[in-house]
Each structure stands twice: as C-alpha cells, then as structure tokens.
Amino acid sequence: MGRAVTVATCALNQWALDFEGNLERIFRSIDIAKSKGARYRLGPELEICGYGCSDHYYESDTLLHSFQVLEKLLESPATQDIICDVGMPVLHRNVRYNCRVIFLNKKILLIRPKMSLANAGNYRELRWFTPWSKARHVEEYFLPSIIQEVTGQETVPFGDAVLATKDTCLGAEICEELWAPNSPHIEMGLDGVEIFTNSSGSHHVLRKAHARVDLVNSATAKNGGIYILANQKGCDGDRLYYDGCAMISMNGETIAQGSQFSLDDVEVLVATLDLEDVRSYRAEISSRNLAASKVNPYPRVKVNFALSCPDDVAVPTCMPIQWRHHSPEEEISLGPACWLWDYLRRSKQAGFLLPLSGGIDSSATACIVYSMCHQVCLAVKNGNADVLADARRIVNDETYIPEDPQEFCKRVFTTCYMASENSSQDTCNRAKLLAEQIGSYHINLNIDAAVKAVVGIFSVVTGQTPRFSVYGGSSRESLALQNVQARIRMVLAYLFAQLTLWARGVPGGLLVLGSANVDESLRGYLTKYDCSSADINPIGGISKTDLKSFIQYCIENFQLTALRSIMSAPPTAELEPLVDGQVAQTDEADMGMTYAELSIYGKLRKIAKAGPYSMFCKLINMWKEICTPREVASKVKHFFRMYSVNRHKMTTLTPSYHAENYSPDDNRFDLRPFLYNTSWSWQFRCIDKQASAL
Question: How deeply is 76 buried, as exposed, middle or buried, from its count of CB atoms within 10 A (0-12, 13-18, 19+)?
Fold first, then answer.
C-alpha cells in the first residue's frame, strides 16, 4: 500500500474576467505540478473567472465563459493523470454557487459548493452567491452540453461530499470555511479525511499573515492530517492585494511556505508527505477517536486513482520548516509595490507621476515606487520573462533590460514639486534630494501665477479679495485660499501626467499617485479634489505611525539619507503664509489632535464598533494616566464632530491599497452616511453626563 503522497498547491495572479490569461496561468501551474511529480493540484478560489468579478457574477456571460475555460482544461492532455481542483461560479437549479470543480482524466468527480460565505469588511459574497446549506448532502448536477461532449457524463455529484481515492481521503474547504467557528475540516477529520484542501481569495492586511498560518496549523494540530492552502495573489482589478502565502501543513507544523509578495504570476508548492505520519499522530489522541466513533459520515465519491505509488518506501518526504513572517515595514515596502506594478502593467500606462511635497506621506509613496523598481529588477535578474516583457512594453523599448532600480525609476517615475509663495526652501530641497537618490525624473514648478489668476477671477466678479487670517481675513477666506492652492496642484498634476512624456518625445501617459494616509482620510484633513484626488493611492490604507516606521526602514535598507531630514520635520500642508521665511502651519495643530490619537480613534470606531459614547467609556480607562474625563470627553467630541463634518470627502476618495482594518474607505469597506447631524446632541449629552459624574 502506498504511503507517500505528492500534492501541489499554488498562488496565481489571476485577473477578474481575464479568461484567456487565467487559463494560461492555470495550465502553467498544472505543468509545474506534474513536472515535480504531484498527483493532485489545488488552485485559488474562483480562479477561472478571477475572484474580483463583483456584479459581473450576475451575468450569464461569466458562467458561460467559465464553462468554456473548464472545457479547455478537461480536454487538454496537460490535465491527464493528475486530480485538478479548480474554482468557478456554477448555477445549480437557478441558484449561483461559489464552487470547486474537481476532475480527473476528462471526468468531473465532484462539484463542491461553498458553505460559509465571506460577507464582512471587503467581502460581499452573499450579494452574488448562496451558501450550500445541506450538510453531507449530494444532488445530481446536469452538465452543460459543451462539458458533456468532453466528459461523456450527463450528471455529476454536486454538494457536500469527500473524495475517497485508492490510498486516502480528501475533503475540501473554501476560504471563509477555515475561519468559521464550525469549520468543515473538524467533522471531516473525525470521519477519516486525511487531506484537507482550502482554495482562498484572501487579501493582505498589515500583520494578518500570522493569523492565517496559525489557523491552518491549528486545523491539523488537534485532529491530525494534511492541510493544503492555495490563494490568489496580486491586484485583480480593485483596491485589494491578494497576498499569496500558499502553504502545506501536516499535524500542526508547516511543511511548505509560498511567498507573500512577489511579481511571479504563477507560484507552485509541491510536497511529498507520509500518510502513516497522519495515522500514527491520530492514533494516540483518544478524545479525537472517541468523537470519531460517533461522527455522522460524509458521502464519499470513489476515485479509482492513487496519490501515491505502490513501491514508495524509499521516496523522501518533506520535513517541517519555520515560517518566516515579514515585519510591518517590509509588508509596506513589498505589498503596495507589487500592487502598483500590477496596476501599471495592466492599465497599459507608461509610468507614474507623484506630486512630491517633501513631507512624510508623499516621500513614503515615492519610496514604495522605488521599492517596486527594486522588485522589477530583482525579478528580471531571477529570470522572470513576464516581468521583463512588461517592463519593455512600459518603457517602449524591446531591447531594454531593467538592471538598476534608479535607472528604471527614471524611466517610469516622474516627481513634481509644486511651489507657492507659502512653500519653504527646506521642503523644496528635501524633495529634490530624495528624487535624486531614488532616480526619478524630477520637475520643479511654481503655482503662484495660476493661484493669482483664479483668485483674480473671483475678485473681478465679486469685487472682494479674500485674505489669509494672518493678514486680517476670516477663517473662511483663509481656508478658501488654501483650497485654491491645493486644487490647482491637482489640475497641474493631471496636466503633467498627460503631457510630460509627450514633451520629452516619449509615447504614453502617466498614472497620478495620491498620498493621503488613512488617518488624514478618517479625520477629513484634506481638500476635496486636491492632490489626494488621483488615479490610485498606495498609502491610503496605512497609518502615519506605520509610515514613519517605513521611512526609517527605507533609510536603513535603501540608504536613502534624504529621508532623515524629512523624518525630523513636523508634518505641514504649507498652504498658509510663512512667518520670517519659516513654516508656521503644522498638521497636528490644524487637526486639533495627534496622529497617534487618530489611529486610536480609527481602531475604536471601526474595529471595536464604538460610537461616541462607547469610545469615551473606553478611553477614560485607556488614558486615565494622562487625561481627565472632561479632557477625554472634549477629545472624543472633537474627533466625531470633525469626522462627521468631513465624511462626505470619503465618497470621492482615491482608490487606495487596503492595508488597515480601520480604513474609512467609503466604496465598500466602511459603509456609513456622508450627511450627518454633526451636533451628535444625544450622544454628546450622554458623554457630558458621564464625565460630570466622574
């Protein structure tokens, strides 16, 4: 009897509705798996159509094209003699399900629908799919004619079942089911399933990877078994970056680890494991065996195929490894960089333009683009032909080889310092020096003429000339003058993005990058339709605190010494007049709160689900050493007042890389009104009453 099974899992950079590209990547993963001796291949969730199809799942075209891709897979010699497990939407009795289609040698073995749908945060699966609620129940699924012609099958099993091969038993989970409190692997393991599979569409969040790894390892630590996880990777068309981390675990220990961030479109992990290790591990867990004797059995689909070879005693098996996690600073350096590369190559643009102010946020954004250039050069050095082809197309040079990150940065990245009479020489020098060190094509320009022209039109029409508050104007006048500067910078950013390469005799246009961080968006400390309005924003989901740590990381790892002075300077918008040539305006003074406080407010508001009163109650304990109850009350009320006054700005927020679970992204993650009663009279009265009592 065979005991050593060889299995493969993968991370694929699929793209929503890119059926041709998705099919090619699936084929490549199968070829790699077979070349390494695998007898079973697992792919990511909904890999045939791409996970992020959203409302396209409603369209019959998506179902049709998915089956057409499945037809190509079934009839191909490449899928012979290996069990292939692929993901696609399936319509069964007029209900759409998120399914795994498992097939072998032109025969579909089982269509397994997802039972627990992801429906929190960024996920909206219940909008498009229905969970399969019939546990351990199988029905007949009538195949479309194009599939019948290939398989010779009229119907196949559809439902909650497991596969019984000649040497072992496999059971499938799909993404969210691993995270559910009643995960199927628990009951499946008690019923003798030895290999659990999980096809995921799990996106990156800072500091999240360890949670996924811990869940996989714990799934087999208590119950024994082999756990195989596949995941989507890359940007498949929206704000999320799917971060790979395909893995294979056995008896609570990691056996194989895939990369979390890379520019490889196809990554395949293969491991050979001894089934007897699972059986002996389970043998001494008496509580597990007692529960197993009473378990309700799963329907079994018999498969006349083995994952092992008859004479495999001498076959070497894989040993456990120690999982290496990235630091948060490494995650910021790599995740948004890979997301930017996917967006750049798939949008078919020629590069990026960034308004570089010399502050922390725009400098961090520039560093992420520089990190992307590093990743591109490294991938090409390691022989990645896809990245080389994309780089050549982007720079419009069929012989080009990106070898030096600074030289590549000069070709694909334009930075622009837009000075005004309120800008200091210090920020100008900082921006220029950083641009020199990363290699970007840098532009210096002055916006005063445009500002005067716009304000002049207003003065001609109204007969009034607004003034800054330092010159006797009202706060409304001062704010309007600041906003004019900010909005003119946005207009100029798009003008230069469209025509800079044309002026240099180079074809193509540039994507405009925004650089507002998650805390400023939460507070609304930005001008609507200013430079925060861009095509995409790689730092829009990252806190100021984490960005400062990332800047320090770049100083140490990229030797960008220009960042030292940027780190030490107080954050400022530089929209108000200078005082004796020096900046008088600072962000934290303008906001009436610190960035550290903003991060706390954001986490309590979103993650802890705290309204004004609950936030006050939590903070009087958290801050009891530094604030009185009345001071806490004042801070909480000021935050909610400013948050609600500015919430409307989130409706036009630039699409941002999702990195934090307290993001205020209004698109689909943080669903709130944008017209509030900003007095919060009832809530604030409750706070005041409690503060007085304390």
Answer: middle
The tens digit of pLDDT for each residue in 246-295 reads 999 999 999 999 999 999 999 999 999 999 999 999 999 999 999 999 99
CA 177, 10, 257, 244 dihedral sign is negative
Q: Is 114 a catalytic residue?
A: yes
**What CA–CA distance (Å, rounded) separates 516 from 39?**
48
Cβ burial of 178 (10 Å; 0-12, 13-18, 19+) is buried
Q: What is the pLDDT of residues 74-120, one digit of tens each?
A: 999 999 999 999 999 999 999 999 999 999 999 999 999 999 999 99
The answer to whether 36 is a known catalytic residue is no
Percent composition of the chain: helix, strand, coil (DSSP 3-state, to 5): 45, 20, 40
Chain centre distance of CA 578: 40
Q: Out of 34, 45, 533, 599, pick the active-site residue.
A: 45
329 an active-site residue?
Answer: no
List 53, 175, 338, 377, catalytic entry = 175
484 SS3 class: helix
Q: Which of 114, 544, 606, 637 is catalytic?
A: 114
The Cα 248–Cα 256 span in angstroms is 5
Q: What does the angle CA 539 – CA 543 – CA 549 come to, to the nearest 5 degrees?
A: 90
User: Does 45 qualify as catalytic in the annotation?
Assistant: yes
Structure confidence by residue, pLDDT tens digits, 385-407: 999 999 999 999 999 999 999 99
Residues 6+ apart with CB under 8 A from 639: 523, 593, 597, 598, 601, 615
Return the bridge partners of 355, or none.
416
154 Cβ partners below 8 Å, 6+ apart?
A: 142, 143, 148
Contact by Cβ (8 Å): 251, 320: no
What is the rounded CA–CA span in Å between residue 662 and residue 650? 14
Catalytic residue (choose from 357, 371, 423, 521): 357
> Pick from 132, 149, 70, 49: which is nearest to 96 by CA?
132
pLDDT of residue 582: 65
Residues listed for the chain: 694
| Amino acid 347: pLDDT | 96
* 514 within 8 A of 654, measured Cβ to Cβ: yes
627-634 average pLDDT score: 95
